[in-house]
Amino acid sequence: METNIQPNLAVNSNTNQIPSEPFLIAFDPENGMRIEAWLEYFNNACKISNKDNDWKMLNISKYLKGSALTHYVNSCLNISNFDDLCNILIENFLKPNIVNLSDFSQHQLRNNLDEYFHQKLNCGRQ
Asked: pLDDT tens digits for 6-18?
């Protein structure tokens, strides 16, 4: 699912250039932001501003707030690959879908063990 969020890359009226760093809304999990959507937003802004993964690794902490920044400082400083960092952030801040979890727990073993595990597997994939 792609979002239509566009980063604000306002052109400096004095120089007629896009600023060297994109203006981005920081990720704040306490405000109900979804990490997957925010990372897509961050990556789009970096792409528009021609920022590579090295720049992202050096600067992402400027765009994290609250528990996201705390988690980054406590657990992510030794990570050197941006994709690995994204995976760790997603793993930590992904909010489970409660409906799917309740569906998952409603499947019960009856007579067919194979069918039971296929139902659980399909539910887990959602």
From this structure: 454 443 445 444 4
- Of the chain, the end-to-end C-alpha distance in Å amounts to 14
Long-range own/partner contacts, residues 15-21 (CB < 8 A, 24 or more apart): 18/48, 18/49, 20/49, 21/49, 21/59
Here the tokens at position 102 are: 């309740």
Question: How do residues 70-80 score in pLDDT, each as one tens digit?
Answer: 999 999 999 99
For residue 23, give both structure tokens.
Answer: 């203006």
Angstrom CA distances, 18 to 38, 48, 57, 91, stand at 21, 10, 21, 33
pLDDT reported for residue 10: 43
